[in-house]
């Protein structure tokens, strides 16, 4: 996967010189290589939506750490959860992950909603994304509608900063979902 052609501009300015923009593109290229590896491993589907590249992947429900009372506490996925939905969002101009977004999804099957929620940011050692565990009625084709609001964070640069101004919608139709749960880390053999 390579960095797409630029729109918005990525030209030199009083905030970014050409070599600095090259570093940003190199960071984006690394993120896109991780996204390509995710596509090969888990079947991620990627679409262009406005100023973003949006990727969708469905995996097995999984546990995660959460900060509680100043300590990280492991939480298994809820018992009823049998799927994990991930949405990765990259800048279409340079390929870098875009943090701080308000990403909502509606997942449906046969016209009935299965999930309608805002996705929190999930730190991942391989590919940062927005996501959640959820319950699906079974294996099959699902439709996923993703909505991304314009972010409220400030943007540097009078030349390169004019991006993410409009909300975007992207539809992933007839995506094959398969229910499952990842084993607890405590259940895995230790090396």
UniProtKB/TrEMBL annotation:
InterPro entries: Metal-bd_Tp34-typ, Tp34-type_sf
Entry keyword annotation includes DNA repair: no
UniProt region (Disordered), positions on chain: 1-20
Name of protein: Fe2+ transport protein
Keyword terms of this UniProt record: Signal
Family: Belongs to the UPF0423 family.
Cited Pfam families: Iron_transport
Classification via Gene3D superfamilies: Periplasmic metal-binding protein Tp34-type
């Amino acid at each position: 996967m390579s960095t797409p052609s630029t729109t918005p501009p990525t030209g030199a300015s009083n905030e970014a010189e050409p070599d600095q923009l090259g570093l940003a593109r190199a960071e984006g290229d690394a993120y896109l290589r991780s996204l390509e590896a995710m596509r090969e491993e888990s079947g991620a589907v990627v679409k262009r939506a406005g100023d973003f590249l949006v990727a969708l992947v469905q995996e097995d429900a999984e546990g995660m750490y959460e900060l509680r009372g100043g300590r990280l506490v492991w939480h298994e996925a809820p018992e009823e959860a049998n799927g994990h939905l991930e949405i990765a969002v990259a800048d279409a101009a340079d390929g870098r992950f875009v943090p701080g977004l308000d990403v909502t999804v509606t997942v449906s099957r046969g016209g009935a909603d299965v999930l309608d929620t805002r996705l929190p940011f999930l730190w991942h050692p391989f590919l940062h994304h927005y996501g959640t565990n959820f319950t699906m009625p079974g294996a099959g084709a699902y439709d996923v509608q993703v909505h991304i609001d314009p972010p409220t964070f400030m943007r540097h640069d009078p030349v390169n900063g004019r991006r993410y101004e409009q909300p975007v919608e992207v539809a992933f139709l007839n995506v094959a979902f398969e229910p499952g749960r990842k084993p607890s880390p405590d259940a895995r053999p230790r090396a």
